[in-house]
Amino acid sequence: MNRLKTIREFFLEEDGMGTVEVILIIVVLVGLVLLFKDQITRIVNSIFSKITSQTNKV
After folding, report:
1. Distance between alpha carbon 41 and the CA centroid of its chain, in Å?
2. 1-58 pLDDT, tens per residue?
3. What is the residue extent of each domain of the chain?
4. How far is the C-alpha of 21 from the C-alpha of 3, rounded, in Å?
5. Read out DSSP for 18-58?
6. Would the pTM of this model clear 0.70, i.e. be above it?
7. Within a 13 Å sphere around the CA of 9, how many CA atoms are in the beta-carbon half?
8. Longest C-alpha distance within the chain, in Å?
9. 16: number of CA atoms within 13 Å, CB side?
10. CA 53 to CA 49: how far, in whole Å?
11. In this predicted structure, what is the pLDDT of residue 17?
């Protein structure tokens, strides 16, 4: 009986909803990264090339 009560409390507990929300946010972010992969790559390459050219001046 005690195990059944513990299992029931586990399923009724709402603390786990935070985990579901975090997973959904991660899925959306991964989707956006995949969608805008080319644009992100261009921006990062541009930033690194500017950093490289600026370090040569120092």
Report:
1. 18
2. 688 888 788 777 766 667 778 889 999 999 999 999 999 999 999 999 999 888 877 6
3. 2-57
4. 28
5. HHHHHHHHHHHHHHHHHHTHHHHHHHHHHHHHHHHHHHHH-
6. no
7. 6
8. 75
9. 5
10. 6
11. 67
